[in-house]
Amino acid sequence: MKTCLIEKVDTLNELYDALIAQLDLPAHFGRNLDALFDCLSADVEGPFTIEWRNTDAARTALGATLYDTVIDLLREVADERDDVTLRLEP
């Protein structure tokens, strides 16, 4: 099982970079939230875990609205796929 470890995210682009590097998102990934959902829900082979540490700092850096949107997206992927785990650490 592969694990994508996200420790420090100050921008959405930094999150995309971490996911691309660790989960081998496909070349057609469009660096937007809709494309992220599509790629994580269908294009990335499982099983895999996304472990996001320092989420309190990420929420501050990204802003509450964007952070909550991203977390909701990741939770939806994990809910839809039996082979995806999401771990969030403050």
Automatic annotation (TrEMBL):
Protein family (similarity comment): Belongs to the barstar family.
Cite the source lineage: Bacteria, Pseudomonadati, Pseudomonadota, Betaproteobacteria, Neisseriales
Specify the protein name.
Barnase inhibitor
Which ranges does the record mark as transmembrane?
none
Where is the Barstar (barnase inhibitor) domain positioned along the sequence?
Answer: 6-85
Q: Name one Pfam family in it.
A: Barstar
Under the heading InterPro entries, the entry gives: Barstar, Barstar-like_sf
